[in-house]
TrEMBL record, chains A, B:
Keywords: DNA-binding, Transcription, Transcription regulation. It comes from the Bacteria. Residues 146-220 form the HTH crp-type domain. InterPro entries: cNMP-bd_dom, cNMP-bd_dom_sf, HTH_CRP, RmlC-like_jellyroll, WH-like_DNA-bd_sf, WH_DNA-bd_sf. This is Crp/Fnr family transcriptional regulator. Pfam families: cNMP_binding, HTH_Crp_2.
DNA sequence: CGTTAAATTGAATGCAGTCAACTTAAGTGG
DNA sequence: CCACTTAAGTTGACTGCATTCAATTTAACG
C-alpha cells in the first residue's frame, strides 16, 4: 500500500525488504477515507496517531479568528504528517483534505516499534522530517520575499518536483487538484490576483494549466523566473554517505 | 554553561541531575565566540556539528540571487540549531549572528551518545524540534496573512515570550538587540515600513522601545492586536503526561 | 439540464515599497 | 574626551503591486 512513502524514503537510502514489509504492515492496520474539503484533525485536538497519505492531497492550515486562512503545507501521497506529533499535547494547526483522501492511521506504539526495530527507517524518517522543515523554511522565504509571480511559480515548481520523486508525474506534467482560492491561501495572495498571475505565466508559456492538469514545458525557465533552487528538497541520495558510515549496520 | 537550554527543556519535562551533567559536558567541549553579523555556517556548507547558543542572538537566513534576504528564524540563548542536521549533506540556509555570540559546538557522536543514554533528553529534544517546527509554521501564517502592524506585533510577542521561558526577561521588558532592517528581513517588510509600524505601536502604547530594550506594558493587548495565540509554543509542561506514561522509565 | 463551484474580468482603492534626504545614535581613534 | 566616521533610525513624496468589490463567464456535477 504505502508504495509512495517507500519510494520517497528510498530517495534517501535503500530500504531492505524487511523494512518495506514493516512499513506495509504499519500502514495497513487502519485505513480511512475522507471526502474532499474535510478536516482530518482540528486545531486543539489531541493527536492520537500519525497519518500517512496513501492517495489524494491534503494540507495543513491555520485560521485566524477573523477567518483569514493560511495553508501551511501540502501533503501528497507518501507524506507522513509528523512522525512524532504525539509528543505534543494538542494540535496547533488543522489538517484538512483538498481532494478525497485515503490515509493510513499509524498508532504511536506502531511508530515506536518501527523506529526501534528498523534503524534505517529511523534515519529515513529523520531525513523526511528535516526535508519537511526545509520546505517550511522555503515557504517562509516565498511569502516574505518573492513577488506574486515568483511565489506562484515557485510553488508550482515544488508541486511538480515533489510528486515526481514518488512517480506521480508523466513527462512534463502532473496533477494539480487545487483551486485558485487554495493557491491563494498557500501563497498569501487573493484569488483574483492568483488568477492574474496564472494568466501571466500562461502567456509567457511557462506553464500550461487546464482543469486539474499542470504542464511545465520548460522547467528550468520556470525555475529561473521563480528563483527556485531545488537544494532545499535534499534529493541527492544523502544515503550514500550513510551506507559508508558506522551509524547503520549494513 | 547551558543553563538556558536546560531551563528550556525543563519546560517540557524535569531532567535528572545526571541528564543535566551530560548536557553540561556536551556543551563545554568546544566553545566558540563570534562577533556580530558574522556567518556561523553558510548555505552549501556541510554541517559538521550541532550549534548550541549559549549567549547572544543569531538567526537562520536565506538570500536570493538578487540580494533579497529573509530571516527564517531567530536563535536565542538556549536554542539548538537542528539536533540532527548532519543527516543532510549540505545546508540549505545560512546561520549568522545578530549580536556577538558565544556558542557550543556539539559533535555528532556527542549528540548520539546524549540521546542513546538519556531517553528523557531524547524526548525533550523531540519537543524542542517540534516546537521549532511549530514556530516556523506560525511565521508562515504571519507572512502570509497578517498586516504589517500585526506581523511586527506578533513577532514582538514571540520575542518576549520565548526568552521569558529561559529567564531572560525582567518584568514586562526584555532585550531586543535587533535593528529595524533585521525586523524587516524577518517580517518581509521594508525598513521604512517597519519604522512606521513601530511608531504606530508606540503611539498606541502597546510597546516601549528605546535602544535595544523592549517593554510591553500590556501583553494581552498586544496579543489581541497581533492575533497572537500562544498555543504554538507548547509551553504547558507537556511532560506531565510523559511522567505518567510508560515511554520513559521514571 | 439546472445548480453550484470555480474561474475570469474591470474598476477603484489602499497598503506597503522605493527613493532620497535628513537626524540621531553609536562607535572609533587621536 | 572630543572629533570624526559610520550605522541606525526617521520623514516626506511618489509609485505600484496587490486587494476589494462586483459582475460575468465557464466548468463541474448530480
Amino acid at each position: 500500500m504505502p508504495q509512495h512513502l517507500i519510494r520517497k524514503l528510498q530517495q534517501f537510502a535503500p530500504l531492505s525488504e524487511e523494512d518495506g514489509r514493516a512499513l506495509e504492515d504499519a500502514a495497513s492496520r487502519k485505513v480511512r477515507i475522507f471526502g474532499a474539503h474535510q478536516d482530518v484533525i482540528r486545531e486543539g485536538d489531541a493527536p492520537e496517531h500519525v497519518n500517512l497519505i496513501l492517495e489524494g492531497w491534503a494540507c495543513r492550515y491555520k485560521q485566524l479568528e477573523d477567518g483569514r486562512r493560511q495553508i501551511i503545507s501540502f501533503f501528497l501521497p507518501g507524506d507522513l504528517c509528523d512522525p512524532h506529533v504525539f509528543v505534543l499535547r494538542e494540535m496547533d494547526h488543522a489538517i484538512g483534505t483538498i481532494t478525497s483522501v485515503r490515509l493510513a492511521e499509524i498508532h504511536r506504539d506502531q511508530m515506536l516499534r518501527l523506529t526501534d526495530e528498523h534503524p534505517r527507517i529511523t534515519q529515513a524518517l529523520w531525513w523526511e522530517t528535516l526535508v519537511t522543515a526545509a520546505i517550511q523554511r522555503e515557504w517562509t522565504v516565498n511569502l516574505g520575499q518573492r513577488t506574486g509571480l515568483e511565489r506562484i511559480g515557485h510553488l508550482l515548481c515544488e508541486l511538480f518536483i515533489r510528486p515526481r520523486g514518488v512517480g506521480l508525474t508523466e513527462g512534463d506534467s502532473c496533477l494539480l487538484p487545487v483551486t485558485q482560492v487554495e493557491l491563494g491561501d498557500a501563497t498569501g495572495l487573493s484569488n483574483v490576483h492568483v488568477n492574474r498571475v496564472l494568466q501571466e505565466l500562461r502567456s509567457r508559456e511557462l506553464i500550461v494549466l487546464r482543469g486539474k492538469r499542470l504542464s511545465i514545458p520548460d522547467l528550468e525557465a520556470l525555475q529561473r523566473v521563480a528563483l527556485f533552487n531545488v537544494n532545499y528538497l535534499h534529493l541527492e541520495r544523502e544515503g550514500r554517505r550513510l551506507e559508508e558510515s558506522h551509524l547503520i549496520p549494513g
